[in-house]
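Hi R.,

Here are the chain sequences for the assembly we discussed:
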Amino acid sequence: MKKEKKNDLVTATPQEVKKDELFEIKYMGRWQLAWRALKKHKLGLFSLWVLIILYLVAIFADFLAPNNPYDQRQDLSYAPPSKVHWTDEDGKLTAPYIYAWVLERDPETYRTFFTEGISLGSVVAIDKTTGEEKTFEQGKDGVLNIYVTTRTIRYALDADGNRANLGGPEYSTVQTVKLTELDMLKETVVTETSNRTTLGALAPSRFRELLRIGPPVKVVTERSLHRIFAQKENEIKDVVVEAISIVNEVIDVDGGDLELAREFLAELEISPNLVDVIQDPQVTDYVTKKYPIKFFTQSWEYKLLGFIPMKLHLVGTELPSKFLLFGSDMYGRDVFSRILFGSRVSMSIGLLAILITFSLGLSIGGAAGYFGGITDEILMRVTEILMSIPSFYLLISLRAVLPTSIPPHITYILIVLILSFIGWPGMSRVIRGMVLSYKETEFVQAAIAMGYPSGRVILRHIIPNTATYIIVSATLSIPGYILGEAGLSFLGLGITEPSASWGLMLSQAQNIKAMTEAPWLLIPGIFIFIVVMAFNLLGDALRDALDPRSLGF
Amino acid sequence: MKKFLVLVSVLLIAGLALSATEYKVENFNGKTGGTFYYWGLGDPKSFNIDWAQETSSTVPLGFIHATLLEADEGGMPTESGLAKEWWFSDDGLTFFVKIREGLKWSDGAPFTIDDVYWTFVDVSLNPEQTANGNGSYMDSNDQLPVVEIVDSTTISFTWTVPMVTALRQVGFRTIIPKHALSEAVASGTYAEQWTIADVDKLVGMGPYVMTEYVEGVRIAFERNPNYWKFDANGVQLPYLDKLNYEIISDQNTALLRFEAGELDIYGPSAEQFPRLAGMAAEKGWVTGVGGPALGSEFITFNFNTKDPVKNEWFRNEYFRKAFVYALDRQSIIDSLYNGLGSPLYGPVSPSSGFYNPEIEKYNYKYSITRARLELKKGGFDWAPDGTLVDSKGNKVEFELLTNAGNRTREAIGNIVVDGASKLGIKVNYTPIQFNTVVSRLLDATYDAVVIGLTGSVDPGTGWNVYRLDGGLHFWNYPPFYNEEDHITEDMYILPDWEKRVDEIYRLQTSAVVDQDRYDLFAEFQMLFAEYQPVVFTMAQNFLYVHKGDFHLTIPQLSPATGILYQVEGFWKD
Amino acid sequence: MLKYIVRRLILAIPVLLGVSVLAFLIISAAPGDFLDAYRMNPSITRDQLRLLERQFGLDQNVFVQYFKWLGNVLTGNFGYSFTYRVPVFNLVWRRLGATLLLSITTMIFTWGIAIPLGIYSALHQYSLSDQTFSFLAFIGISIPNFFFALLWLFMSAKTGWFPIGGLISQNFNDLSFFGKIGDYLWHVVGPMVTLGTSGLAGLMRQMRGQLLDQLRQDYVLFARAKGMPEKNVIYKHAVRNAINPIVTIFGYALSGLLGGAVLTETVFGWPGMGRLVIEALNAQDLFLVMATLLLSAVLLVIGNLLADLMLAWVDPRIRFRLG
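And here is the predicted structure of the full complex:
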């Protein structure tokens, strides 16, 4: 019973052809038939679609990527994937939106973590120094962004409530306020800790101050709103933050006023009107700003298909938030966007390299096996020599003769050539072994006897019989090429930073920290796996489809 | 009765011998017994101290060898080791060392002044016998010292000018046994002696002796029965009977093995530290954060490229200063070092006693605005599209190299590119294989390189970098340096401050008064901070974690002490 | 047949010469040399570097260096390692045991699983088990060895089932004879599985594909029609015909026995040849590189010869041609 089923599977196809199919078999060409056979192969077809989609993704990577893959944001180093919210504060369903990540560091273990935060869309506050009420609203009166400066004081308390100052106050300028600290806009936020390690860490640094009080029992942190700034001219963020800190310094340290600060800014060649300020603010009203995930938005520039300049992107959010579908890497770059861009290299390199490797391997292996004798000896000894030379040194020497900064497209061609050059000798030996065997089969001998030229015999009669081997080893060598390219970049020959490829991204994520604390860095591995699966399943289907026996000849 | 007499006489002789032997007594108070589990990255390459280069060889050798002087907590040679006393002659030209009497090598042979004399005269000062050469023993007249045995316990070194680094060069030199090696040295086969196959032949004065080396697995040590240090209670050191030096070839594996309790002490990277610190309370580990490391990573610009336009930029101090400002060091420290690092603006680490806090008056910090101002001062301007152009209208674009595989340097490179782009400068950044970087550096055929050098608490050890004729003076090699390269008299420009740095490095070796030497290095740091010939970046803090039942000799380790400070005093509950 | 073998061995001589010339030239063409690490050492002077260059013979012309080396090799002296200062084959010898232990167990593991699984998958094409095996194999081939090794060590540390890398335990010297053997085997599992998983997929899929090809051939149909027992049809005929490319692959798998695997060895702390060779390559330790290169070339020649002999053994048609 079992045996019969097996027979069905592997040999019975020609006999069981239905009548309407018989027509097709008779009147369709070889390729049409192959396509028909392929269509029947559900998994194979599915894989084909997956691959087509991935190639489209590679082509339109810049349109699909929500962020510029080279854009570094140190404050988002190792940030986890953005949390997408579907409901607003009242629990009602809304358009999806995200908050911005705010980096925090545990003062004892130095571990970083991220909490959600938002920036101000508009704020109304009374300037307590002048008494006038001021309104900053994004998009109005030239206000581009709103920043706040916060003030933090820490002090220790003993059991009787005696107080020892722990330095400070510290000021920090942020565009994003933590959700948990939104109260700070209206009043001073006080947090207390009696954590033993915190208390233990006090002693050496604040010795003198702490001597005045009894043994400290808790540490109190007070955070309050110090100043509100509006950015009014276009400038990079680093300069805006610097301008704000200069204004703060002039007012707090030098005891000056805004006018003096403006003179200072002008001296440093920063536009004096870059920022406007509410000193000592008493916030009466504010509107926070969420970051809805927008479709078809305008952001960074690129060239579609390499020549159409565009700014349109499929999805995106506004600064300072960054929509991170797959989190970010060490430099705060969007992993998802990098995967999309990396697919350009990774999805094509293997295919091209395989094409070259296999044409070389097939022709040399084929010739060696077919002609035998002295040809075989010479070709095989040469492959042995080539297989023995360490490719490592070959690459270093190559690297040495090439200029250091090679244009990207040349680098790319080089990688393909190098990878295929390393691969072909092994391939040609296997082909040779198979050709040796097929050369002696009756059908080949018959072809030779009929006087066909050698090229034709090899190509039409022998090589098709090695199709299975070729397809299997081609589809299986794909991951080798994708990962191998990363090895080349180590020698300065492959795709190097800041460009991206899956292999490179994965090779940079291979440490305990990535595994335990930033597992999203390993996502390129999943993509490699999907591609390998798809190519292999497609290969299976192709082999079945190309097999003359299953075509019904 | 006879037995009793024998016993008495043995005791007497032993007592006599003991009194004649000048042991060193350390102020330790530990318990004896147990095994110390330590580790190292990679296999040793040689057990020959004069030919070993890598730390994977020199660290394990440190356990079996001893030196005349030992380092204090600041890393300076002020503690006595095999030497009991040491002093300079009044004219400062001669350095005397008096060794302890009655000590024995680990194989039982007596340790004498001949061993010391032979170590210096036959090996250390003879460039044929040691890979490191004798350059560091030369005084500012390029003369080697004359070594003489004064009496049976005293040796002298005489230079033509006062030589302060004698303390370090003579004091920290490993003394090797004449009786075991003199034949090999005489016959010129010393380099092939004491290889990794010769574990059983090694003889030393250190706290441990090597008993076994299993390739790729471990080096096993046992206590040296003849060790010459005792603790306050008269117990012979070291406390720990055995030392297992595990050879691990990957940082991640080492971390996992420490976590599993297979190692006693571990120096984590800044990236690993938070993980360990988070587990410390539960596991009872002790964590420590010392000051910034002594080595440094920096960006060097080549003053003598083959392109005269680029040379103009790189020789322009404002151009270099723009990079001092444009480099967001704190970002790198935050992302790469988890906040466990310090920015550096000069050649000497703040952990060194020679650090000059005066350089902080330049108030360097991250500031794109100030970077732009510096560029303006240097005659640069911006084209309408935002790219930086020099006074002749050339677009500023250059190539930056670093060695691939070094995460810190790659990160610095990435951030330089980012900072430069904010200034309108295009930097073509290529991480590349190490040997290629070295070749380009030494041929002066690079534009800019991110590289690092190992450091020491004493800036004097960096003379090969800062002196004009130094082999590593790569930012401005003089034309006479290498006849084959492209640097000619015509293109070469020697700024005054660089000349002064060279002078300082020649003067410092003969500055016998400590304060004079400190002042010289203070001036050197000010010159570097002002002109920034190379742009220093930052240093990771010194980090360590050890088990709770494992005890060190001092409460806090630092980059100057290193992890293995006074290893003979480590003990376990 | 003996004549054939002798002829091949004689032909190996120009191959080895070719390898040595090419390798020597390429290594010398690479930037820098062994002394680069010394050059970056702030305490070594230029005079000292010149002295060292002379001592290591690096100041001479490439051709002079090559012929000197070749002359020594012909007298059986393969030179000293620059780094270790011991004769190069001593170093190779010290690593031989661990290397062979790992490569042989890996080979048994890979081939022992891949071939039966491949045959099974072919006989049950598109069944659930076939799909599962293929799926697992693809996972294996998609995970970089380095990462797999790290994951393995991480799990070992968590569970304590396997050691965290290394060749032997800390208490190895106290173990009984059988305890020692067990200890070796316990340690080899991790690197073996790591290396095995990446090689498994290829072999298994090749075996499966080739056998499927053969099962579709007319002679199989004929044999079955004739009523030959299924076992005989498959194992005596189909498998034997399907194995051709597998045999060639086996040939150069043999040549890799002493090659080692750098990344896996590094993570597991396995003292194999892979690390020795890569360190020598990185340090440009000329004679050590040359010796290991020649060794692998010799193994390659032998492996290929064996593969050809095996091909002839499984396939009478080839026997006829090579004879």
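DSSP finds 16 helices and 25 strands in chain B. The mean pLDDT of chain B is 87.

Let me know if anything looks off.

Best,
T.
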